């Protein structure tokens, strides 16, 4: 049954008004637009759930600015496919959420709801922060390197980056099309399942996934373990210990995947130099030094090196697939530690590069914290294409992990 | 050395003015814009070559309307990546060329330069017609089913649809992202090579490909041969005979690939229902019956059927790759016959569905005609990822095939 649209709209507006002055999760939101949309809410599987739309995704009712002054007041005529699907299913769009510039590193104004001196992570900064303090139920997010997993980890929420190309990205700005993937951030796995069910197809029959215990978990510290800090090491080891009390868990060494992080960087840089060719050529004075450096790096890569990286990536994907004959899920770090201070940037993508390269579905799960109570996510990786299974394992893991601290906002 | 920009601009404007009133290849072109752009022409590998941009590709200087009234006067802020790369390399944009509605079936006003009572083919109608009568040197085109190969065949020009995802599609409208591929139409293979060299990367070092004779050609009549007409049968057999006089050629039976055409239709319909969700939902009264039917068909496909089709497609791709251990190129029909009359639509995509599904690079070559002198292209398919080799074989084939009739325009 459809909840009262007026109540939904006013609750949403109140919650945003309560937090937004401090968090700065939105680039735009408009109470009148929310009320208008609420009046037409449909009784679908997401009826009444609120959505924040990362501002690299086109919308009819709001500007789409990509975190860049080049696109100030840039108005699209249409809603992106993902926005249309969510609205059709009964979701209510709250507004556009802050992205770093072109979903890369240059941060926007959003702060971390757990500690406003810290970054929410990037690039899906606003969606993650808005979900963490309860402003929206679903944040549309995206990932080219670690742009979903990292903010989910830093903000103590669930992040679901599905298998590559699972969601249609029509109306979403390109960064590196070999990796660009839409996903969602939510407060629990059930909400991610609901959103997934809608985003994965034109039809949105309601499907409930069963909680499922993975038979065997591979705990992968990754070749970059030593580049994580003590907080992360302890959080991951504690999570592994917890899971290991309930199912089979052993360490898996992926030393022969180490090259994956560099391959990811090569492919991403090469493709970004194409995707942002216009901005770099016609609007150079308005792009950040980070974007300029990315494009210059991409332009320095030869086509041959790029194609070799693509071929090696494809080989690694085949090797990864075999791994899942042994393990139902891989447990791995989601980020090097807790959210860095704002002045230090949006954090390192290192711990996601390999998984993004491999196209694997990734589920970041909250619950672990450091001594100061700051969240550190843990990451579950599933087999390519087996997104439902990963989400089912996520329901199980959610029961095992500690109750997460409520965010004061 | 850079040719005189004024001469280039005025020649281009004169040629367009000579043909456009009859051919209707452009949705917009603006002599003042052409003169302005010419003044800033850079001395790159495409210096002075003129380009028509299919109107599903965003441009800063012209509206982008996707062949649909929904997007009348729709203004993008940026040039698409492909447009920027071509301009950087010294090409001069002539204007936007007619596309069918959303690159599907509903035709625009363009007619075939060889017979104005006939279709130029779709969806890259304007780019193909503009190239055929010499209005532009390079037409940006795209293909999701047969939208590049078919118009190239009907208009008696070269069509190069590269391996899937070879060119960055940032700023290009989605139809079915599993297949959507940018490509080019030109009057000769050398021009396609020049354009390819620029579009494939952020850097555009000038590379010359050698003419190369394929050691062995597989002539594939395809499982749909009987759905082609006598004109096509004769053109293909004649081309095969010609090639066979110079190299090894034998028939290859791909009966076990027949399912590919249906798999293509399943995947395309499912994804189109997502890509065009906003247009179908918010602007239903402004879409054609063909688009509405496509989306309804896509909505009727289950996620399970879609995923099974994706998996089967992947298997066929692996089988196709093995084929190229025996054959350097596959020779196949490009379309069922010559261009149909305008009232019959833009022609059937049947003869390209399989190859598009397989991600293979495709080169359509002119030279064959029916008794009335209307062009019928022949199609060369290369190994996935081996685009340069295919273009090299194309240089060879171009020498073997009859001189094409000049288009009166």
Automatic annotation (TrEMBL), chains A, B:
One Pfam family per UniProt: Amidase
Residues in coiled coil: 299-326
Keyword Ribosomal protein: no
Keywords: Coiled coil
KW Signal (keyword) present: no
InterPro entries assigned to the protein according to its UniProt record, in alphabetical order: Amidase, Amidase_dom, AS_sf
The Amidase domain, residue ranges: 10-391
Gene3D superfamilies found in the cross-reference section: Amidase signature (AS) domain (3.90.1300.10)
Alphabetized PANTHER family for the sequence: GLUTAMYL-TRNA(GLN) AMIDOTRANSFERASE SUBUNIT A, TRANSAMIDASE
Protein name as catalogued: Amidase
